[in-house]
Amino acid sequence: MRADRLVSLVLLLRRRGRLTADVLARELEVSTRTVLRDIEALSAAGVPVYAERGRHGGFALLPGFRTELTGLNHDEALALLTAGPGRAEPVFGLGPALASALRKVVDALPEGRRATVDDSARRLLVEPETDLLSRRREAEEPAGPTMAPIRRAVLAGHRLRIRYAAAGQAPCWRTVDPIGLVTVRDRGYLLATRSGADRTYRLSRVSAAEELPEPARRPDRVDLDRVWRERCARFLADGHVDVVVRVDPAREEELLGSAVAVRAAEPDADGRLRVEAAFQDLRHAEWALWRLGPDAEALSPPALRAALHERAAGLAARYAPRPGGPAG
Predict the structure, then answer these.
(1) Rounded to 5 degrees, what are φ and ψ at 249?
(2) Which residues face 135 on adjacent strands?
(3) What's the pTM value of the predicted model, to 2 decimals?
(4) What is the 3-state secondary structure (H, E, C) of the chain?
(5) d(CA 273, CA 47)
(6) Which of 37, 110, 145, 279 is the most buried (most CB within 10 A)?
(7) Rounded alpha-carbon distances, angstroms, from residue 311 to 259, 282, 286
(8) For residues 159 and 154, what is the distance between their CA atoms, to the nearest angstrom?
(9) Terminal CA-to-CA distance of the chain, rounded, Å?
(10) What is the phi/psi pair of residue 180, to 5°?
(11) 127-166: per-residue pLDDT in tens?
C-alpha cells in the first residue's frame, strides 16, 4: 500500500538522515520515479522534505522534525510475532526484552486485528528444534550474568574486563576494547581489540564480565558487517585446510556441524552435494569425513584422500578372512 510506503520513507529519512533517491528506491523496493512521486506527495501533505543538490546531495527532513507515525499493518505485526518466538534462545541476553516487546505489539493492535494476527502467527513456524533429517545443533549461550555487562560496555563505549577460556586453555582475565556483538549459526561473538590487536571472543567461553568506567579505544563509527567479513577472511586463511567433499544431502548437517566454515555448497550431478569447507587441519578433516563413511567422498586435497585410503585399507586388512577361518 502507498500509505505504508510513505510512512516507511519518512522513517528512513528520520533514522538515517540524508539519502539519495537511488538508496531510497532500493530500501523500499520500488523505482526511483516512484520515490520522486512519493517525495512530492509528502511535501504536498506538509512533511518538510527538502532536496540537496551536488555530489553528496539527496533528500532529508528539516532538523528537529518529529511526527507520530503509529499503527502496524497486518504483515508487519505478523513478521514480528513470527520472527520473535522463532529465536527462542536469548540473543545477546535480550530474550526477556524481546518477549516483553512482542506482548506490547500485540496489546497495541486494534481489538479486531489482534485475534487475526495471533491466529496467523500460530500457523508459521521458524527454526524448530528438529527437522526432517537431523536434530538442530544446540545454541551456545553465555552464562546469564555475563551478558548484561558485555552488552552495556559495547553500547556505552566502555572498556570491558572478561574472564575468558580459550580452546584448550585455563580461563584468565583480559581487559579489552569492545567493538560489537555478532551472532551467526547460533553462536555469539564479541568483537574487540586488546592492546591494539584485533580479537574475537566466543561468548559461551566468557564466564564473568565487568564493565569498566574508562572509555574504550575504538572509532566512533563502525561498519560491523565489514569488520566481521575481514576477520572471517583472516581466520579462514590462518592455517586451515580447504576441502572439497561430495556428500549425501541427508548427512549434510553433520558435515557442516564439524567444519570450521563452509565456503560453498551446490548440488552435484548425481543428487549429492558438492561442498567446499575449511577444517582446522588435516587430522580434523580426516576425522570428520571418516565419521560419514560411504556417504561422503573427499575430492581434495590429495593428502586427505591418501589418509582416508590408508585408514580404510588398514581396517579392511584387519577384517580380511584368515586362512582356515570362517568364510568371508
Answers:
(1) -55, -30
(2) 130
(3) 0.53
(4) CHHHHHHHHHHHHHHHCCECHHHHHHHHCCCHHHHHHHHHHHHHCCCCEEEECCCCCEEEECCCCCCCCCCCCHHHHHHHHHHHHHCCCCCCCCHHHHHHHHHHHHHHCCHHHHHHHHHHHCCCCCCCCECCCCECCCCCCCCHHHHHHHHHHHHHCEEEEEEECCCCCCCEEEEEEEEEEEEECCEEEEEEEECCEEEEEEHHHEEEEEEEEEECCCCCCCCHHHHHHHHHHHHHHCCCEEEEEEECHHHHHHHHHHCCEEEEEEECCCCCEEEEEEECCHHHHHHHHHHHHHHEEEEECHHHHHHHHHHHHHHHHHCCCCCCCCCC
(5) 54
(6) 279
(7) 20, 14, 9
(8) 8
(9) 73
(10) -175, 175
(11) 655 554 454 555 566 656 788 899 889 988 999 999 998 8
Residue 30 in grid coordinates: 520500488
- Report d(CA 76, CA 258) in Å as an integer: 37
Class of residue 91 by CB neighbours under 10 A (exposed 0-12, middle 13-18, buried 19+):
middle
- Between CA 164 and CA 190 the distance in angstroms is 11
**Cell numbers linked to 149:** 555487562
Tens of pLDDT, residues 75-86: 777 777 766 655
If you search the block for the grid coordinates 572509532, which residue do you land on? 219
CA distance 46 to 23: 23
